[in-house]
């Protein structure tokens, strides 16, 4: 077994982010270093894509609308600066990539997605 295959099989075998799905609303807590200070920045939005599921290069793309402007961030799941990913709302979707949400209004998005369960009853937190 070569070194790359050995790293891929052992380093990230038990990922705590394997249960994230597209359509869910999440809060991503990321450490930001500014000068000599370190703080935690929270990015809250909807997961619109998930690529390379449980591989070391796996990513999620999170979208939110801030001040009427859509903002998307792509987070590598195994980034050491991500402290935790908190699921705030679960919804059922029929597609694995929700790129069509870029062209929809907030009302159309709410109508398109069905809420799966109450977020206060079952709040999940994934820590790295």
From TrEMBL:
Q: Which domain of life is it from?
A: Bacteria
Q: Segment Disordered: which positions?
A: 107-128
Q: Give the molecular function GO annotations.
A: structural constituent of ribosome
SUPFAM superfamilies in the cross-refs: Translation proteins SH3-like domain (SSF50104)
Q: Which Pfam families match?
A: Ribosomal_L19
This protein's record includes keyword Ribonucleoprotein: yes
Query: Is the Ribonucleoprotein keyword given for this protein?
Result: yes
Q: Which family does it belong to?
A: Belongs to the bacterial ribosomal protein bL19 family.
Under which name does UniProt file this protein? 50S ribosomal protein L19
Q: Which UniProt keywords apply?
A: Ribonucleoprotein, Ribosomal protein
Q: Which GO terms describe its cellular component?
A: cytosolic large ribosomal subunit
Q: What does this protein do?
A: This protein is located at the 30S-50S ribosomal subunit interface and may play a role in the structure and function of the aminoacyl-tRNA binding site.
What's one GO BP annotation on this UniProt entry?
translation
Transmembrane region positions?
none
């Amino acid at each position: 077994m070569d070194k790359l295959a050995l790293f891929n099989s052992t380093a990230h075998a038990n990922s705590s982010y394997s249960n994230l799905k597209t359509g869910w609303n999440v809060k991503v807590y990321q450490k930001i270093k500014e000068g000599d200070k370190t703080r935690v920045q929270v990015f809250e939005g909807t997961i619109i894509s998930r690529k390379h599921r449980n591989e070391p290069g796996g990513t999620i793309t999170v979208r939110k609308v801030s001040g009427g402007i859509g903002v998307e961030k792509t987070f590598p799941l195994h980034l050491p600066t991500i402290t935790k990913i908190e699921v705030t709302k679960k919804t059922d979707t029929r597609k694995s990539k929700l790129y069509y949400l870029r062209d929809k209004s907030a009302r159309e998005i709410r109508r398109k997605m069905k809420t799966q369960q109450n977020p206060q009853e079952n709040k999940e937190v994934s820590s790295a």
